[in-house]
Design goal:
Largest sheet: 4 strands, antiparallel
Number of domains: 1
Oligomer: single chain
Strand content: 15-25%
Strand order of the largest sheet: 1-2-4-3
Distance between the termini: 33 Å
CATH class: Alpha Beta
Shape: globular
Number of strands: 4
Bound molecules: flavin mononucleotide
Structural class: alpha+beta
């Protein structure tokens, strides 16, 4: 799929078919993640690839906004080592988007489930809940969980109507890029 088709086609898909994702697709997606840029090329990423149904169902209970994981055959937990880089959040975010775009190019649907700085319940952070569930050590920080699967819902592609030309400034802030 051509690049602009991929970026337009990527939508947050929260319902998935039961169908298993071929291992070679999973590896292609991870390969794309490792091609991400990172601050000072420190490459602080860790990815926990979860395909056990029971574990995914528990990840879906991280917080209400992650309930969509319930039907996902695959979840990639996107992490960063804060001992390797203080910029791990930016690096992990870019990798998460590479994952979403690569999966889209392979005909899969994805959605970002946010974990960092969110709560599981009144006492426990979402990050600690995920960390305990998957045995992730303290210095490995959890940014988000990307749910991946063959789409079981259809959404229109993005379109040029969404481009906010009014937010684009030519040379100085306030000089609009387009005169209309
Ligand atoms: C940083 C970030 C956090 C997000 N967190 C969640 C989330 O926790 N749960 C969810 O269902 N969607 C989440 N999303 C998906 C957004 O809701 C979605 O990208 C947005 O509504 C635009 O829709 P689109 O992805 O179909 O273009 C998140 C997206 C980003 C970039």
């Amino acid at each position: 799929m051509e690049f602009f088709e991929v970026v337009k086609k990527r939508r947050s898909i929260r319902k998935y078919q039961k169908k298993k994702i071929p291992e070679e697709y999973v590896e292609k997606i991870l390969e794309a993640a490792f091609y991400s840029p990172s601050s000072r090329n420190r490459r602080p990423w860790h990815f926990v690839v979860v395909d056990e149904e029971g574990l995914i169902k528990k990840l879906a209970q991280t917080r209400p906004a992650l309930e969509f994981l319930e039907t996902a055959p695959l979840a990639i937990v996107v992490c960063g080592d804060e001992e390797i880089s203080s910029a791990w959040v930016f690096d992990a975010s870019i990798a998460a988007e590479h994952i979403q775009l690569a999966a889209t190019a392979l005909g899969l649907g994805t959605c970002w489930g946010h974990v960092l700085e969110r709560m599981h319940n009144k006492e426990k952070s979402a990050e600690d809940y995920v960390r305990e569930l998957l045995g992730i050590p303290e210095h490995i920080r959890v940014l988000c969980i990307i749910g991946i699967g063959y789409p079981a819902e259809e959404k229109p592609s993005h379109s040029e109507k969404e481009v906010m030309w009014g937010r684009v400034h030519r040379n100085r802030f306030g000089n609009s890029w387009k005169m209309k």
